[in-house]
Write a structure and sequence with these properties.
Layout lengths: L5 E2 L3 E4 L10 H8 L5 H12 L4 E7 L7 E6 L5 E6 L18 H18 L7
């Protein structure tokens, strides 16, 4: 399967990036507590193509910064793991016209969006 971006309203899940425009490696390193290199991003893309693991970062709709790492394992015991890139109570730099949100809000809404996709599109049971 090709990597799929998911829009869930205020938050969206997108493929991992490591290029001149957007570099998710520092945020992924914070989330996982270890140094992450470009191979991590390449492996995530390869796993999409082999349908062994689907990986996204969850972002706020008006920004590209990764707020959480989400990994869906579709195997016989499907599961979704979501790890924040900052403490959940961290306030997001919201546009003043939008309601204030936190990293925790991104976790909840991003998890719900990915769960709906996995259950509806892939037929997985995550709950």
């Amino acid at each position: 399967m090709e990597p799929t971006e998911l829009n869930g309203g205020r938050f969206y899940a997108r493929t991992l990036l490591h290029d001149a425009r957007v570099d998710d490696l520092p945020a992924l390193s914070r989330a996982l507590g270890e140094a992450i290199d470009a191979d991590f991003v390449a492996t995530a893309r390869s796993d999409w193509h082999s349908d062994t693991r689907y990986t996204w970062v969850i972002c706020e709709q008006t920004r590209v910064e990764a707020l959480a790492l989400a990994v869906l394992y579709p195997g016989p015991r499907p599961r979704l793991e979501v790890v924040p890139t900052a403490p959940p109570e961290t306030a997001l730099p919201n546009d003043p016209v939008l309601a204030p949100m936190t990293v925790g809000d991104a976790l909840r809404e991003g998890t719900a969006t990915i769960t709906r996709w996995a259950e509806g599109y892939l037929g997985l049971k995550l709950r």
